[in-house]
TrEMBL record, chain A:
PANTHER family: PERIPLASMIC BINDING COMPONENT OF ABC TRANSPORTER, PERIPLASMIC OLIGOPEPTIDE-BINDING PROTEIN-RELATED. Residues 88-455 form the Solute-binding protein family domain. This is ABC transporter substrate-binding protein. Belongs to the bacterial solute-binding protein 5 family. SUPFAM superfamilies: Periplasmic binding protein-like II (SSF53850). Pfam families: SBP_bac_5.
From TrEMBL, chain B:
GO terms for molecular function: dipeptide transmembrane transporter activity. Residues 95-326 form the ABC transmembrane type-1 domain. Pfam families: BPD_transp_1, BPD_transp_1_N. This is ABC transporter permease. It comes from Reyranella soli. It is found in: Cell membrane. GO terms for cellular component: plasma membrane. Belongs to the binding-protein-dependent transport system permease family. The chain crosses the membrane at residues 12-30, 103-122, 134-159, 199-219, 257-286, 306-329. Its main location: membrane. It is a multi-pass membrane protein.
């Protein structure tokens, strides 16, 4: 009767498993108090922010394990939470700098060391900057956004002095040195692992670290977790309070919420809007929602196709979007409205801002008649299936509302992997999409989204020489001239309305009540260095 | 025996070749542009072209295929872009996770389904037969992801009996020294009881949800097969000869009834191994199914090809093993072959 005894033992084991209490050793309880457990949806795919296709979680790894020359200051936002301050650059590896019209000279900290104990010197900084502008792809592109384009611009003056020569006067140069891309890497260590075909050690850096930042990666299990330990010898800022950070991937959103609610996880960004709005009233958790700077969810229309080449049609659509319904039943109030302003005019040098459109079906119908489409027309509305939890209900609401002015829309769901490719083709008549820029300047957003250079984010294919002139002017001027240019292009964007702003999304984060020091960053990743627990 | 083995292996080769060609073509036919996806947020057309060259996607299809075959011959399945790791290494770490879960679930299912099926057949029409019917009906009608979510909600969220559904081990335990990749075995071998318990606790809920699902076909098949054997002449003869009921049921009837059960077992096992992606998602289990689905979503060719190829090889091996097992259980099969 072996089978029977087998059943007995297995079922008995089942009961024991279910009822066994957690085996917590003393040391482990201690470890729990000093460890921050973050649960997330997507894992980093590289340890190197310059790597091909490095994703957003990889930026987070890079941000916490590397130093940059400068970082940003902090301010309080409207709700009293910490918010990085884009107007204030502060020392990180550089202790001071001397900004001249044609160059900037950085003095480097003398006692700063990489994780392997090598001192950080100006030649490491130069090597890292050279790498960022040379390897191509995203890092090179981001450096160029601040007019950092050629290795000759980066000069080693002596071991502790580093100079950047400007190729043109660009107000984004200094802020761009504080973004996640220009990290300082251990050049000797990298060179040791470089090969003839791979002079920048791209292959090696994918899985290894040549950094000197506040945290070291203790263990990385791709697709599963990253475990960090604090670098106790870190000199480039105040020593972080949290000794260990574990970032674990939990694919199911419901389980991420359950872990937070049960107190097993400390912090998560990746929850649906509905969960955040419900967790706000939870006595056990803190939920912080920060408007994402320079970002918007919008409805874009392809101005190079009939009937959206007609501005009256675009305005009609802008008056037919069911804005408030979207705010209530798609976003559960977790967003900032960008509609229903007093008028369709510029309201100050900031972006995004409210336009004057609101849901007004009668007016939309009148505009359709004026445009010569009293009977309406048929079109398709496309969205990225990768962000279906927001996009799907939103497009259904828009579809219903547009039907009232005679526009029959077919909803076209595009798989996430395919979305970027479809955007590049620029032949979708109507889309919903979101865009956010790192650097918080209106002209930076407009440069990507409305400029005739026709970047991938100008999803409407909008080209207007008058608009381009105003954007270019704003990029390189200051004072009243700058304000006039910003006013000019914002007014024009509202009047021409190739994209209909709907709302500004929030960056939501839920954490245990005993976690403090959360700071919003423009890169929307978590900075472990300011957090505390207990 | 060896001859049988070799001839079976020879017939497997065309199917493996077919799988290699079909997966290569299928992944290329999928919509989506990996270069555009991986070029990142602010990519310009030339940045995307650079990425495309780097990935070798600018070459013609036959050239890409030759490159793929050459790599394959060297045991290289390429690199996954979404995790940044070689596919071989990823599959080597993830396959044991899936296999441990599947095997554990299957042992659990067999341990319950076979005795239940046998008893239901022997005591046809009694309460145990009804129980068998209820369990199997419930088992097939509850999808795995549903029982998984329900279990996580009840046993973790409400009752706190089970640990957090956060993967193979609690966050504060380190994985055991790698020997087989099965955490239970590795931790037992190294005598690390804390990790053994931790791994067993994490394994319990996902394994039970999978076991419930796979229980149904096994129990039904055991019952049906036992019923037909128990009604046959040789059993009547055995009974009439005054053999003990236990000897009749187990020595004579069960041994003859087990063949179709093994067939179903093989099917259930291969189905579970490939299709447990839902359980893996619910319990954050770092298995191979989850890996393949994530790769599909991002048009990451190499892992998808690697996954399909691994699965094909596994299926072939499994079918072979089952064929050999038939021979052990039933001498007639051996003679036929």
């Amino acid at each position: 009767m072996r089978r029977r005894s087998f059943i007995k033992t297995t079922s008995a084991a089942g009961v024991v498993v279910a009822a066994a209490p957690a085996i917590w050793s003393e040391a482990k309880a201690q470890a729990r108090n000093e460890t921050l457990l973050i649960v997330g949806e997507s894992p980093p795919n590289s340890m190197d922010i310059h790597g091909v296709g490095a994703n957003r979680p990889a930026y987070e790894v890079s941000w916490n394990t590397h130093d940059r020359l400068m970082t940003y200051g902090v301010k309080k936002d409207a709700n009293g939470n910490d918010h990085y301050d884009y107007t204030k650059l502060e020392p990180e590896l550089a202790t001071e700098w001397d900004l001249k019209p044609n160059s900037v000279t950085f003095k480097l900290r003398r006692d700063a060391k990489f994780h392997d104990g090598t001192p950080i010197t100006a030649k490491d900084v130069k090597w890292s900057f050279d790498r960022a502008v040379t390897v191509g792809g995203f890092p090179t592109f981001q450096m160029a956004a601040g007019s950092l384009e050629k290795p000759d611009q980066f000069v080693v003056v002596d071991d502790n002095t580093f100079r950047v020569d400007f190729i043109r006067s660009d107000k984004l140069t200094m802020p761009d040195i504080g973004v996640p891309v220009p990290v300082i890497m251990n050049s000797e260590l990298c060179k040791k692992n470089a090969t003839a075909t791979d002079p920048w050690a791209m292959e090696w850096c994918k899985n290894n670290h040549a950094s000197g930042g506040a945290y070291k990666v203790e263990r990385w299990q791709p697709g599963q977790e990253v475990v960090y330990a604090r670098n106790d010898d870190w000199k480039n800022g105040p020593l972080p309070k949290i000794k260990r950070v574990v970032m674990r991937i939990i694919p199911s959103a419901g389980n991420r919420r359950a872990l937070l609610e049960r107190g097993d996880a400390d912090l998560s960004f990746d929850l649906p809007s509905k969960d955040f709005s419900e967790l706000k009233s939870s006595p056990k958790l803190t939920v912080i929602g920060t408007p994402i700077e320079n970002a918007m969810m919008y409805l874009g229309m392809n101005v190079n196709q009939k009937p959206f080449d007609n501005v009256k049609v675009r305005q009609a659509v802008a008056y037919a979007v069911p804005y408030q319904q979207i705010m209530d039943s798609v976003m559960f109030g977790q967003a900032i409205p960008l509609f229903g302003g007093a008028d369709n005019k510029f309201k100050g040098v900031y972006w995004p801002q409210k336009d004057g459109y609101k849901t007004d079906i009668a007016k939309a119908k009148a505009l359709m008649a004026e445009a010569g489409y009293p009977q309406g027309f048929e079109t398709t509305l496309s969205f990225d299936l990768g962000l279906a939890s927001t996009n799907e209900p939103l497009t259904v609401l828009v579809q219903e509302s547009l039907a009232q002015i005679g526009i029959k829309t077919t909803i076209n769901k595009i798989p996430g992997a395919n979305w970027r490719g479809e955007l590049l083709k620029k032949n979708m008549p109507m889309i919903t999409n979101a865009f956010g820029g790192w650097l918080n300047y209106p002209e930076y957003f407009f440069f990507w989204c409305y400029h005739g250079q026709n970047a991938v984010f100008n999803t409407m294919g909008y080209k207007n020489p008058a608009m381009d002139a105003l954007i270019d002017k704003a990029r390189f001027t200051t004072g009243p001239e700058y304000e006039a240019a910003v006013k000019g292009f914002i007014d024009m964007a509202f009047e021409e309305v190739p994209r209909v702003p709907i709302y500004q999304p929030l960056l939501n984060v839920a954490m245990q009540k005993n976690v403090t020091g959360y700071r919003y960053w423009f890169h929307r990743q978590l900075d472990y260095r300011q957090l505390a627990k207990g | 025996m060896l001859k049988l083995l070799l001839s079976r292996l020879a017939t497997a080769i065309p199917s493996i070749v077919g799988v290699v060609v079909v997966t290569f073509m299928l992944t290329r036919l999928l919509p989506g542009d990996p270069a555009a996806y991986f070029a990142g947020l602010a990519a310009s057309p030339q940045a995307i072209a650079e990425v495309r060259t780097k990935l070798g996607l600018d070459k013609s299809l036959p050239a890409q295929f030759v490159g793929y075959i050459v790599d394959l011959a060297h045991g290289n399945l390429g690199n996954s872009l979404s995790t940044g790791q070689p596919v071989v290494a990823e599959i080597a770490t993830r396959l044991p996770a899936s296999a441990e879960l599947t095997l554990f679930a299957l042992i659990l299912a067999v341990g319950i389904a076979i005795p239940l099926g046998v008893l239901a057949a022997v005591k046809q029409g009694t309460w145990i037969d009804h129980l068998c019917r209820i369990v199997t009906t419930a088992g097939v009608s509850l999808p795995v992801f549903f029982t998984g979510l329900l279990f996580a909600y009840v046993f973790y969220y409400l009752l706190q009996w089970a640990p957090a559904p956060s993967g193979r081990l609690d966050v504060f335990l380190s994985p055991p020294t790698h020997i087989t990749g099965f955490y239970l075995i590795d931790s037992a071998l190294t005598g690390n009881m804390e990790v053994f318990w931790g791994a067993l606790r994490q394994l319990a809920l996902p394994a039970i949800s999978m076991a419930i699902f796979s229980l149904a076909p096994l129990a039904r098949m055991t019952r049906g097969s036992m019923l037909s054997v128990l009604g046959s002449d040789f059993i009547r003869t055995a009974r009439a000869s005054g053999l003990a009921p236990g000897t009749v049921v187990f020595t004579y009837a069960f041994r003859n009834a087990v063949l179709p059960v093994i067939t179903v077992l093989g099917m259930v096992f291969s189905f579970l191994l490939g299709a447990n992606v839902l359980v893996e998602t619910v319990f954050a289990w770092p298995g191979i199914g989850l890996y393949a689905v994530n790769a599909l979503i991002t048009s990451d060719y190499a892992p998808v090809q690697g996954f399909v190829l691994t699965m094909a090889v596994l299926y072939v091996a499994l079918n072979l093993a089952i064929d050999l097992l038939y021979g052990l259980v039933d001498p007639r099969v051996r003679l036929d072959s």
